TrEMBL record, chain A:
Annotated protein name in UniProt: Origin recognition complex subunit 5
Lineage top rank: taxon: Eukaryota
Lineage, top ranks: Eukaryota, Metazoa, Chordata, Craniata, Vertebrata
UniProt organism field: Ovis aries (Sheep)
Length: 398, 696
């Protein structure tokens, strides 16, 4: 078990709970286990390593991929079939469309010699997708042990608490296990664990310490942090590589990396600049300020009349109707009358561009209602190009 | 058609394939105009020829303009893909997130043009990067199932190798399978491995670079995709990235911010997004105008009004190059259709040749042209008689006039470009920033009569030397690039001007500055200072001795002015201009600014307008029972106010429809009548009916 402890860090209590739940191979385990916790809190990793290193027969299915019931059931059955048949045998593809068939086929497959007399685990990752599928699916999986009369345990992995799953009609209650977020100490320990072979562990740990100091306030996602750590590590090493500082010169290294990381937080972390672009910038040693992020390109060129329609839509969406008189009687004639034939066509095209959205019912053919979805900055930029002072006409700015 | 079925409902009758369509040769449509006989076939052929030339020119332009964008995209795809497969033992590669390389392609709001751009992009990618290029549209992908189905079916069609015929049967079977990402990556593995040992020659180029070509997925209209589908697809495919090398291209019409709006951070962190901007459509328009209209390459020209309509539709309504070119095509077609003398709208030698074969009728047409009449009136009386009576002398005169017209155009565009060089960088752009605005003004009237032109000359007189020289330099380039002989000495003249400006540098006029300095300001009190300043001012205004530079500048300005007055005459001053210029703006507006609602209303309210069937002709307010049913229903609905009683409506419908058989009204059984009443609403209900067995 020492091996397992090396692979799974900071999750000792969860691992031991699971291990005691699993018991011996031939023991019946709890029919269904529900594991939840935030993104990147190690749910999938822990379950997978545990099942693998204990060499328990298991099937791992990601529910995102199974957007229909049939795909889900077939994937489970086929993987199981693959497990039960010995290597040389070429198994046929099983088809299964409903849960009833699934139970029957499941029984058949688990008859096999190498699945007999031991617990079979079915792990359903991203289990929240199950809620959108057929209503009988979740209760069915929860009491699969009872339905199939086999030694089987279903493990659900989800980011959502169990209370949001529970169907109205009631169901079998699973064993709920919570994976809490990693603390900063945990993160430090885990991140320092994968240090590069060229550098000492202490050197990398110091780097991680700085990285967490910058990013911990905004991001606790372990995967993302690891990614960022790798991306920015070459920059941290730079003084050492150039011979300007040695590995223990923490102050100097810190001064070198800290502004760089802050910049990374505003750009790469938000995916304003892609990771590959960031690496390239780092390599060329250019100022990241030169590269414009995605959000910098807000300007949209629109045809002349579309601009007016959009402005009118914006005014209509954000001004109360009773104020129309006040705005448009006083400055009568200031707004150009744009009477033309292609109006409706243009509105539809604005809708496809997601600048307007349809509100109300779809079946209202005669007088559809739209709402303008653009931001104030956007509409101000548009209004400026046609010399229209929109602020004057907005109720909120009076 | 009758059926043997006893049930009521909708029956599908397959069309009878034996009936053959009577196809009319297209050129015959040209006959149907009012000018029946006049060379209609020849005109049609000329139209086709010119249109083909214009079309290939626009396509060439498009290709040229897109080249930069496509090249950078290809580079991105190649580098990111090779990064994807870098099988390094590098420590960092294992830990780093596997991101899907994504190109965000900003295409602009002219959605109608996107298809063409993306189609040529697909072609380019297939030739250079990978055979597996798939493009999806939001409306085909309401959910994951359809998304994957479309993706797979297009991918399987992408296969380049032709030799596998038995494979196709396999594909057909596979198409019925439920698709998952697993099956997709399995398919990918099988395909890439299969082609590896016996590579066809064609594929070697990609395969030698990478053992497995990437799959490029183009999402044509990113904005319209639902968040859920996109998110799920990205999550799934990022999990399969190591076995299914996917590269995404997002077609974005508005701005890249939409990516962040559609995808939460958890999802967008799976992407490695780089931005690519396509050419702005306004620039594109400028190039198209430049190459199609501001040139003597194509004889066909647009009048001021028509050009204005086309550019206005573009700028004010849709920004679509496709539509602009369609409008141009329509004007071309309309010109050849409605103007019998458009036979002469072709290149000069051919037009001269055709003049010989003009029929007497056509000669008459020429004599009737207003521009030609004006021309004749200016001739000597002897010549007038000859032109009006003898076809031969008319033809000869026509030939020389055509040649004049050609020369006029050659000079016109050169001088126009030259003038544009001078006006395009003036403050406030009195004659417009784009050459098309200038062109419109020049087409309309004598440009030198306009106020704007006067202000341009004023501004030119204020230019600094380096600005003026830069403009002259540009003009020189314009004239040099052309081969026109008539304006050869203009180029020389400009060169002379340039040389003179150059020499000004060397002989600095010192007297002027020395004069000023000698009279320089001494320390005095306020009164004296004012006095001396006044004196100096007076001195300047009275004597106003121009410097050499100012003299030269004045010369340049008057030179430009003379060029403009000589060569930029509006085309309607030219005899025979009607043969080349399309001016019927009204027709064009009618066709392009269609109002579908009004057209529908007319069709429903007055079917005779479109169907031209005498039986349908009816006086106001009366509903003919022979009209199509939908017209009857529509007219009846117009008689009601906001709310319609359905029963009344259908009863009224039945009354109108059965009105013809009034004499034997009693013979209409109630059941038949019921059938009629229910008829308009049957179409909706048949779907439910057909699923049940008929109970009758």
């Amino acid at each position: 078990m020492l091996h397992l402890e090396n692979m799974v860090l900071c999750r000792e209590s969860q691992v031991s709970t699971l291990q005691s739940l699993f018991g011996e191979r031939h023991h019946f385990s709890f029919p269904s286990i529900f594991i939840y916790g935030h993104t990147a809190s190690g749910k999938t990793y822990v379950t997978q390593t545990l099942l693998r290193s204990l060499e328990l027969p298991h099937v791992f299915v990601n529910c995102v991929e199974c957007f229909t019931l049939r795909l889900l059931l077939e994937q489970i059955l086929n993987k199981l079939n693959h497990l039960s048949s010995s290597e040389g045998e070429c198994s046929t593809h099983i088809t299964c469309e409903i849960f009833n068939d699934f139970v029957r086929l499941f029984k058949q497959i688990t008859e096999a010699e190498n699945l007999k007399d031991q617990t079979v685990y079915i792990v359903l990752d991203k289990a929240e997708y199950l809620r959108d599928m057929e209503a009988n699916l979740l209760p069915g999986f929860l009491r699969l042990q009872e339905l199939t009369d086999r030694n089987v345990t279903v493990i659900f992995l989800s980011e959502i608490v169990w209370e949001k799953f529970r169907p109205n009609t009631g169901c079998f209650e699973p064993f709920v296990l919570y994976f809490p977020d990693y603390s900063i100490g945990n993160l430090q320990k885990i991140l320092s664990h994968d240090h590069p072979p060229e550098y000492s562990a202490d050197f990398y740990a110091a780097y991680i310490n700085i990285l967490l100091g910058v990013f911990y306030t905004v991001c606790r996602d372990l995967k993302e942090l690891r990614h960022l750590a790798v991306l920015n590590f070459p920059k941290y090493c730079e003084p050492v590589v150039k011979g300007e500082a040695n590995e223990r010169d923490t102050r100097k290294l810190w001064r070198n990396i800290e502004p760089h990381l802050k910049k990374a937080m505003q750009t790469v972390y938000l995916r304003e600049i892609s990771s590959s672009q960031w690496e390239k910038l780092q390599k060329d040693d250019t100022d990241p300020g030169q590269l414009k992020g995605l959000s910098a390109y807000t300007h949209v060129e629109l045809p002349y009349y579309s601009k007016f329609i959009l402005i009118a839509a914006y005014l209509a969406s954000y001004n109360p109707a009773r104020t129309d008189k006040r705005f448009f009687l006083k400055h009568h004639g200031k707004i150009k009358k744009t009477n033309f034939l292609k109006k409706h066509e243009k509105i539809t095209s604005l809708v496809t561009l997601q600048l307007l959205t349809l509100v109300g019912h779809d079946d209202q053919l005669d007088e559809p209602k739209y709402k303008c979805t653009v931001s104030l900055d956007f509409i101000r930029a548009i209004a400026r190009t046609v010399n229209f002072d929109i602020i004057k006409y907005l109720y909120d700015f009076l | 058609m009758a059926t043997s079925s006893v049930s009521k409902g909708c029956f599908v009758f397959k069309p009878n394939f034996k009936k053959r369509k009577i196809s009319v040769p297209i050129e015959d449509y040209f006959n149907k105009g009012k000018n029946a006989s006049e060379d209609s076939k020849l005109r049609f052929e000329t139209y086709q020829l010119i249109w083909q030339q214009m079309k290939s020119e626009t396509e060439r332009l498009q290709e040229e303009l897109n080249k930069n964008l496509f090249d950078s995209l290809i580079e991105f795809l190649q580098t990111s893909h090779s990064g994807l497969w870098k099988n390094s033992e590098d420590w960092s590669c294992e830990i780093k997130l596997r991101e899907i390389p994504t190109a965000a392609l900003i295409l602009g709001v002219n959605v109608t043009d996107h298809d063409l751009t993306l189609r040529s992009l697909t072609e380019v990618l297939q030739n250079n990067v990978t055979p597996y290029v798939v493009s999806l549209q939001a409306k085909d992908c309401p959910d994951m199932k359809h998304f994957l189905q479309k993706l797979v079916s297009q991918l399987m069609d992408c296969k380049v190798d032709v030799q596998s015929k038995e494979k196709e049967s396999v594909q057909v079977i596979q198409k019925n399978v439920h698709y998952s990402m697993d099956s997709l990556s399995a398919w990918y593995m099988s395909v890439t491995q299969k082609t590896d040992p016996k590579m066809p020659r064609k594929k070697r180029t990609f395969s030698s670079q990478w053992q497995s070509p990437p799959v490029v997925l183009i999402l044509k209209d990113m904005e319209s995709f639902t968040t859920k589908v996109l998110q799920d697809f990205i999550i799934i495919s990022s999990q399969h990235l190591h076995e299914f090398p996917l590269i995404l291209i997002f077609g974005i019409a508005t701005s890249p911010v939409v990516i962040h709006r559609l995808l939460p951070h958890a999802v967008s962190s799976l992407l490695c997004i780089e931005l690519f901007q396509s050419l702005s459509c306004k620039e594109h328009l400028t190039t198209v105008l430049d190459k199609l209209l501001l040139t003597t390459q194509f004889p066909f020209k647009l009048s001021e009004k028509v050009l204005q309509i086309l550019t206005n539709i573009f700028l004010y309504h849709d920004f679509s190059i496709q539509n602009f070119i369609k409008g141009l095509q329509l004007s071309l077609l309309e010109h050849f259709y409605s103007q019998p003398l458009s036979v002469l709208c072709c290149n000069l030698p051919e037009a001269k040749r055709r003049t010989h074969f003009l029929s007497a009728n056509q000669c008459e047409n020429i004599r009737r042209l207003p521009s030609f009449r004006r021309y004749v009136e200016k001739q000597s009386s002897q010549k007038q008689v000859a032109l009006l009576t003898s076809d031969r002398s008319l033809k000869e005169e026509t030939q020389s006039l055509l040649e004049n017209l050609h020369v006029y155009h050659t000079n016109y565009f050169l001088v126009l470009r030259c003038l544009h060089q001078f006006t395009s960088s003036l403050p406030k752009y009195p004659l417009g920033r784009q050459i098309r605005e200038l062109y419109c003004m020049c087409l309309e009237k004598n440009i030198w009569d306009s106020e704007e032109y006067a202000s341009v000359l004023q501004l030119l007189r204020l230019l600094a030397k380096d600005e003026l020289m830069a403009m002259l330099q540009n003009c020189f380039k314009v004239f040099q690039s052309s081969s026109a002989k008539e304006l050869g000495n203009t180029a020389k003249k400009i060169e002379e001007f340039l040389a003179q400006f150059q020499s000004l540098d060397e002989t600095k006029e010192e007297e002027d500055t020395s004069q000023l300095q000698s009279k320089g300001l001494q320390k005095t009190d306020l009164y004296h200072l004012q006095k001396s300043l006044l004196e100096m001012k007076e001195l300047r205004s009275t004597s106003k001795r121009q410097t050499k530079f100012e003299v030269l500048r004045e010369q340049v300005v008057s030179f430009v002015d003379s060029l403009v007055r000589e060569y930029l005459l509006p085309p309607d001053t030219q005899p025979l201009h009607e043969t080349l210029y399309f001016s019927s703006a009204h027709t064009l507006r009618q066709h392009l600014n269609a109002a579908p609602r009004i057209a529908l209303h007319t069709a429903l309210n007055n079917p005779y307008y479109y169907l031209k069937n005498e039986a349908l002709r009816s006086e106001e307010g009366c509903i003919p029972n022979v009209a199509p049913d939908i017209c009857i229903a529509y007219k009846l609905h117009l008689e009601c106010s906001r709310l319609i009683n359905l029963v009344d409506w259908s009863e009224a419908f039945a009354t109108v429809v059965t009105a013809a058989e009034k004499m034997d009204a009693n013979s209409v059984t109630s059941e038949e009548r019921n059938e009629v009443i229910q008829y308009p609403f049957k179409i909706n209900s048949t779907t439910s009916k057909s699923s049940q067995p008929a109970v009758e």
